[in-house]
Amino acid sequence: MSKLISVGKILNFHGIKGEVKMGFTAGKEDLIKSLKQVYVFIDNVKTSFDIQSVKFHKNTAIVKFKQMNSINDVMCIKGLLVHITEDMLKSKLEKDEFLISDLVGLEAFDTEGSKIGTVFDIGENKASNLLEIQKLNGLKFMVPFVKEWVPVVDLPANKIVIKMIEGIDADMPQQDKE
Fold first, then answer.
1. Distances (CA, A) of 104 to 17, 57, 122, 145
2. Cα separation of 78 and 10, whole Å?
3. Separation of alpha carbons 81 and 66, rounded Å
4. Contact (Cβ atoms closer than 8 angstroms) between residue 54 and residue 62
5. What is the mean pLDDT of each run of 10 residues along the chain (178 residues)?
6. Do 123 and 113 form a contact (C-beta atoms < 8 A)?
7. 3-state class (DSSP) for residue 87
8. What is the pLDDT, as a whole number, of residue 24?
9. What domains can be seen in the chain, in order of their start residue?
10. φ, ψ for residue 57, nearest 5 deg
11. Burial class (CB in 10 A: 0-12, 13-18, 19+), 163
């Protein structure tokens, strides 16, 4: 059974005919528009909803579920997360897009084939996501997750290749906090 991934949150109702305002990650309009079915946990029970229509307004999605026809219907899902299956999400990923859960734990190698360490976590800044690599000695460093720095992501082989430059993984001395 495929794991569920959150793709949005029901923020409020929209109008009186059972539409909802749904928040979602900016730039993922195509993903949201392509969805046919989603899951919401109502009182810890997974409930599926079929999407009838989606439109966008002021950074939210206005979604009409076939099962919702009034404000009263919508009130029970207000504030809840909207999920899709991991398999569904993977089928919608573009080339060179990956789930964080697929990247964490990959072995990291340099372009010469020497093992550097393991992907420990994923962070982000305004420019790009950042891979946090835990070196073999336990210390960590970060590298921008862009093709120039990470030319190879090979999920079946459980590895990534990082273009190392001098200083990128320099061991930073700890400074006293006095």
1. 43, 34, 7, 12
2. 5
3. 18
4. yes
5. 85 92 86 92 93 92 94 92 87 77 89 92 79 91 89 91 72 42
6. no
7. helix
8. 87
9. 4-92 (2.40.30.60), 100-162 (2.30.30.240)
10. -150, 120
11. middle
Task: Please tell me the predicted confidence (pLDDT) of residue 177.
Answer: 38
| Cβ neighbourhood burial of 122 (10 Å; 0-12, 13-18, 19+) | middle
Pick from 153, 175, 159: which is nearest to 117 by CA?
159
Q: Following CA atoms 133, 142, 172, 169 in sequence, which dihedral angle do they give, to the nearest 10 degrees?
A: 70
Residue 88, SS3?
helix
Which residues partner with 133 through β-bridges? 119, 141
Q: Which amino acid is at 168?
A: I
Q: Are 84 and 4 in contact (CB under 8 A)?
A: yes
What's the pLDDT score for residue 172? 43
Nearest to 40 by CA among 82, 72, 89, 87: 82
Q: Give the pLDDT confidence score for residue 169 in this predicted structure.
A: 56
pLDDT of residue 49: 95
Q: Is 27 left (phi over 0), alpha (psi -120 to 50) or beta?
A: left
C-alpha span between 70 and 19 (Å, rounded)? 8
Residue with tokens 């899902």: 77
Rounded Cα–Cα distance for residues 128 and 69 (Å)? 41
